[in-house]
Specification:
The protein is mainly α and about 260 residues long.
Length: about 260
């Protein structure tokens, strides 16, 4: 089932980071006044302005990239659920009680395996079997379909097309869930974030209150930007994890719908 994300954990992490960041600012401002005054006289703010521009561009680029990956993963989830519904609906055209009785548990087992097993494996970046035994079970049901009605060949073609869509969507889902930001890019972004924050930490302000407010704001901006990027890069966990509602709704639809023969 969907991985439970504790919002309290995020709140604690955010609070600790913001408090620590602000504490560094207070210590620097109170105990390194000579350095503070010296840096304020050499217009370090100009350098920080350039760093801020570069950091904004870097963050915008990474945000667009991970957001595109996140939305495309959502679309793949929807396509897989839609293919399952299509398979079940097209079976109704066969008017075969035998096929219906075999297809229903095969589709339900596929959904249960996806929710209870595969998503956990993908969340932990572990290998997933392809094709799975649940996917093979579905094609075996299709393989045993007997034509005893003039419209059966048309329905069978539609069923095969839906199965192909299911297999493709599953393959794409596995690929999307295992695809993450390259480690070097992640290190680069974290390094850029640190230098951006550090620049505001050592920047000189005549007003201590203004200094704390700006440092606090920058700390919140940097931390939340990282959290958003990290969570969208890991769509199966975190505060921004993709909903599994399509799979749950599809399972309920298959269980509740009865094909009339």
């Amino acid at each position: 089932m969907q991985h439970p994300y504790k919002k309290s954990k995020l709140i604690v992490k955010t609070t600790i980071y913001i408090f620590t960041s602000t504490l560094f600012g207070v210590i620097y401002h109170q105990f390194f006044k000579n350095l503070y005054i010296e840096l304020s006289e050499i217009r370090i703010s100009d350098v920080i302005g350039v760093m801020g521009t570069l950091y904004s561009l870097i963050t915008a680029f990474i945000l667009v990239t991970v957001w595109s990956h996140f939305t495309s993963t959502e679309n793949v989830f929807a396509e897989e659920a839609n293919a399952l519904v299509s398979l079940w609906n097209f079976c109704d055209y066969l008017n075969s009680e035998e096929t219906t009785n075999k297809m229903k548990p095969a589709l339900i087992n596929y959904i249960d395996s996806t929710l209870n097993s595969e998503f956990d494996l993908l969340r932990n970046q572990k290998p997933v079997k392809y094709p799975s035994k649940e996917l093979i079970a579905i094609i075996r049901v299709i393989d045993k379909i007997k034509f005893d009605d003039p419209r059966d060949p048309i329905a069978f073609e539609s069923i095969m097309h839906a199965y192909q869509k299911l297999a493709t969507a599953r393959s794409q889902r596995i690929k999307h869930c295992k695809s993450q930001m390259p480690g070097m890019l992640r290190v680069f972004y974290i390094t850029a974030s640190f230098f951006f924050w550090f620049g505001y930490l050592i920047d000189g302000f005549e007003s201590f209150k203004l200094y704390i407010i700006i440092l606090f704001s920058v700390s919140v901006l940097v931390f939340l930007s990282y959290i958003i990027i990290h969570d969208m890069d890991n769509p199966l966990s975190g505060a921004l994890q993709i909903s599994f509602e399509d799979y749950i709704t599809t399972k309920e639809f298959i269980i509740q719908t009865k094909h009339e023969v």
